[in-house]
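Lecture 7, part B: from sequences to assemblies.

Below are the input chains for today's worked example.
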Amino acid sequence: MVNNQLIDQFGRRVNYLRLSVTDRCDYRCVYCMAEEMTFLPREQILTLEEQLRLCRNFVDMGVQKIRLTGGEPLIRRNIMALIEPLGALEGLRELVLTTNGSRLKQYARPMRAAGVRRINVSLDSLKADRFAQITRVGKLEPVLQGIEEAIEAGFERIKINAIIIKGRNDDEIIPLIRYVKELGIDISFIEEMPLGTTLAYDRAENFMSSVDLREVIEREFQLIPSTKDSGGPAKYFDLAGTQTQVGFISPHSNNFCSTCNRVRLTSEGRLLLCLGNEHSVDLRSLLRGDFSDDDIKNTLLEAMNIKPERHEFDLNEAPQLVRFMNMTGG
Ligand code: SAM
Ligand code: SF4
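Predicted structure of the full complex, as structure tokens:
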């Protein structure tokens, strides 16, 4: 029986898996998807059982945190059949999920009961018409109701993820901060990444960096640097005098690559070793062939050898990656 830890050639220990449970979504956010999307044929998507089997192997090899994402994880049929056994998996310290919130009202309590500890809800606007524009099809009200239900359900932390685009929703930075402060929840501002080509607007011109965002927030609120470290590309601050944490996620910066502790699994079973590079390993063929869990573990160990040292992103270049965010799980 193979029982090794996942450590790459640069000595980084991988203990965090982000799993895209589906590439499908009920929204078409302008920065994430094209208006017309072709999704993968169903048979190419891993079944929930296949996803669970891989997760078990990852946890056996030292993965302590799994984030379920997508696409929209909560539109995957029978998703609780994955969440419940993961929540009960010994060795897994943190099961968390990122959602657009459209079905959160329905799932908040069952997820909490199954052991999901924290959730991130993506929300870029508190104005119904603008929310509909950004998501192309989404409705704001059910998301707000879902967030309230999640607060009632008692998650350890709830965090809003917002992408601010100049000229589109940069007037909502302060209203979003007031909203999370009022509810006693957290917020992270994510810098947009050049993945896929959505052609909805010029990315470089509309880009708002974390530095720009902080400047706007600090005109009204005091931000106190926090000691919290996610091992990832985020910097956290406490909003003075409140429970709220404010994060800034700068995926463009590769300063954090040296401490990168994560890998991603796409919905079709491709293991991505780095968000900004195409280095990947096909795990689906193992799952669907006559391979044992030890074979899977050996493949995961070998995959560590091709985890790249760092990534490069450049907003002024055409996207180097043709994948959309829903393929990689953000
Ligand atoms: N559908 C879920 C949601 O929206 O929360 C989960 C998947 S979504 C791909 C995960 C996160 O990626 C969301 O917070 C979204 O805002 C973010 N995202 C999507 N496209 C992005 C991009 N081009 N750059 C940076 N973040 C992006
Ligand atoms: Fe769907 Fe999330 Fe992408 Fe929006 S960001 S289109 S909600 S996967």
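Note for the exam: Residues 140-153 form the longest helix (14 residues). Keep this in mind when comparing with the next example.
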